[in-house]
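Preliminary data (for renewal application), FE2/S2 (inorganic) cluster complex.
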Amino acid sequence: MKNKTDIVIDIEPISRRIIINQIETSILEVLLDFSIQIKSLCGGIGKCGKCKIIVQEGNKFLNPLSSAEKSLLTREEIQNGWRLACETKIATENKNKLKEINQPQFRIYLSENLLQEDFKILTSGKIKDTLLNPSIKKLFIDVEKPSLNKPIPDEERVLMALKLENDKDIFNFNFNVFKEISSILRESDHKITIVLRNGNEIISCEAGKTTDENFGIAIDIGTTTLVGYLINLNDGKTYSVASRLNPQTQFGEDIITRITYIKNNPDGLKKLNSILIEALNEIVVENCNKVNIKPSQIYEATIVGNSVMHHIFLGLNPISIGLSPYIPIIQHGLNVEAKKVDLNIFPEGNAYTLPIIAGFVGADTLGVILSSEIDKEEELTLIIDIGTNGEIVIGNKTSIAAGSCAAGSALEGAHIKDGMRAASGAIDSVKINPENLDISFTTINNKKPMGLCGSGLIDAVAEMLKAKIIAQNGNFNKNLIGNNRFVKKNSEVEFILVKKNQTSLNRDITISQNDIREIQMSKAAFYAGTKVILKNLNIDSQIKKISLAGAFGNYINKENAKFIGMIPDIPNEKIFQIGNAAGMGAQICLLNKDFRIKAEKLLKVIKYVEISTKKEFQKEFAEAMYFPHFNLKYFPSLIEYSNIPKR
Ligand code: FES
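Predicted structure:
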């Protein structure tokens, strides 16, 4: 529990909250004290200009810009709130003011280049065998040379050669091709490669035989992470994958804060769009470099993302998504020329965005539905996609419904005292011996622990429940509070998960009562959301199969997720971890263009449920706040744990 005079500093994009009593030193030293490693090439003496941070909240308490900052930061950076961490501290005259304020709050954004942590970005996923039917094909043709006897124009001779290679006889030239075909024919001895879209549209011609270099890119724009899959459209294989943190996180951790930023800043949309496109183009170039091709040899992109990311990518204002009745500007799949959205692939190449289901259930969810093929399932199947937002899809071959719940951010470390995103040093699994409360754990990259990521949190809470450290209502077990695993901070009790000497923080990593409440709310939102959708589907049957999508779902311990009541109690062999299913949906649409038609058809049959406005939600939510549930009959396999104290 925070003290009234504590200073709270939220660090983004790693979702770390640090709490200190006073700041006597620079922000750089505070970060290093909490083992948040950032680049500081000059050792913090204001010379290298590498330790750039954005102070998003709390600026008014800080010292004015130093002369080093004025010379090392550009005017634009200064306007945008950038500071040098080693030169930034609380202004002396403000120290007393801070003491009078109830929990002063700071928010600091660290750019990806600054962070020295390795983020674990999920790129893999399962994709069912997909018939290869891309919209792009390349054909190598040997064009007859013109002569005085046969003075046939270039266009006609190319068409004659094409007809010999292809059974179609109607082709349309993209006008730009006429501008270059003459020189390309002559410099390549009339041996050229034609790039065909949808079987008959000639979008480009290249000198010589370049049929092997036929690429497309599938892009997944997440609120926090970006992934690009470079795929050869001849064999359907993924040749390279590149990922980045979404640089928009500097403007807010979730879609609501991004919308707010756009609302409050006249050039907000332009800024969020341009930094996103810049990062996506870096992904394009990184992929191309790995495979040794040029970005212009990527002829198509397919894109998934939630509705807000989708709109920002297209440069469309997403404000209406954040306001009741939460509607997007467009819903259907969209084809737009890459150059019109500044995507650095073949300029006349097609950028296809998958359709959006609703304001808060976007193209990413449609990607999940396509790749999971829930529409072919015999059994009633639940898909939970847990990212910064949580999406729920329930259905089978007869009907499908979807909804969203704001349940993901706690699982990415937000609002959890020692929570963090899945990066080096995050505790990702926990075991507690119920006899002596000894604790073992693992961390990402085997680094000394510095916090807990989502899977570690679920494990910790489930293990605390099994060891009766907490009761079914989430409260600490009063009988154990004298144990040396408990520590009293201010007037609140916290459970010590990792002792100070084992951490890289030089303090204990603890779980507070508030942290447990956050997990209760998250898991209750998923459970209640599932119940509400089921009710609205009018299906009188039980969930028989569960697919967990997204990074968190991929690493979670299934048994423990069931144990705390986050997902229904069904046998483990019926619970599948399907990885980045949204990204796989983008891939499928690249590999086989028929899936784009299927996406539109699905859009007409998927029932969208606005979960939080349904009156039954609150009742379901309150009951699901218990571990695993107020009513154990919903979790028959956990009845043996019914001796866990109820309160
Ligand atoms: S660490 Fe070099 S300028 Fe701050």
